[in-house]
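Risk register update: the risk that structure generation would not scale has been downgraded. Supporting records follow, first protein first.
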Amino acid sequence: MERFTGQLREDSPAQCPHIRGMNIAPLENLRGDYLGMAPDWTVPQHADLYSAEDQAVWRLLVERQTALARRYACDEFLDGLETLGIGDTIPDFEAVNARLMPLTGWRIVGVPGLIPDAAFYDHLAHRRFPVTVWIRKREEIDYLVEPDLFHDFFGHVPLLSNPVFADYMQDYGRRGVEAGPNVHLLARLYWFTVEFGLIRTAKGLKAYGAGILSSAAEVKHAIEDDGVERLPFDAAKVMHRPYEIDRLQNTYFVLDDFRQLMDRPNLH
């Protein structure tokens, strides 16, 4: 299964509110090139420098997860895969932005890996989604310490082409900028929606969360396992529900409509 452990914990109100940067570890312990980053924590992608092995790992992952997505993902996610042209080669961020920006005003920016919450929130508030520029190694296909290009891009970017979800992500970033000491409540909201959200559709229960759709084990578990709890989405309840990051989830919250995400309960 795809899990991010070590520097990610859900036990501190000072943590970052997203799977990409909770309790960021010392930079020397992280894989990315932090020395070459800009003040906003971004780095160039250098799409032409990925090796044949990098491309092979991307292809293995994207073929497997796309096949699972066709069975388990909501239509909005599948539409994003097609609209943005996500296929068997590592995407060029600028080429993707040329398609994405006219749709919802969002663009993706390269980052070296995990980034602090303030930087992450600011990017979201300005319709920029940070995507790690390096991809995992073959021996990390199903178990990863830090989020990589595949998780960030395949899991998150397709839904940024959907206007409702795109608006939610920007609103989430704005709330993060304003959250102060209650940022841990937003962390839970992000976890149970953007990372591990489910939605009921005319075609049945479907996944939209990146942590589900980028993991072969989690996607089947979330939709099919009889031993998990699937609760109706209630933003206030979500924000007071602790989560675990080092195992398959035991609890998921289920939307009936993406517009429910725009509910803004008080952060208290």
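Supporting record for the second protein:
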Amino acid sequence: MLLNSDKNKRKQFKLLFDTYYDSMCLYGLKFIDSLEVVEDLVQEVFAKCWKNQIDFTHPQKYLLRAVKNKCVNYLKSQKNLKQITLVENLPEHSFITVEENDYLENKINHINNLIETLPPATRQVFNCIIIQDMSYKEAAEELELSLNTIKTQIKRARKILREPSI
């Protein structure tokens, strides 16, 4: 897919954009949690490609690298050092297909539905420990509960979530 013919540049670029935009956004979401931010960054990558009339021999490989670099630069500007380290060590071929994304979205929705079935107190503790990544001690202080209550609630949550759903 080369972008070197003056006559077909617009057509070829539109085809390139239509082919890779969604998958590059999905790839960007591996690094940054905000879809809006990722869409902006991916659009900037494509805009740079158009502006510089990049001649592609391997567009997917180039775009994966460009999106990853754009995400790293964004995270650096946000001073998110923990996430930057994770992103920089993630290989480009770890990109997912639309089918894999659909499967993952269904799995995530199923898990979220299971979490919603937890009793309110258990769900609150679960969210602090698992979702917000707090330590047991931090959650106990935040929720004004004893450390043993936190441990008991997490044990209950895990038991409920492990039970096969009917």
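The chain has a mean pLDDT of 79. On this basis the risk owner (M.S.) recommends closing the item.
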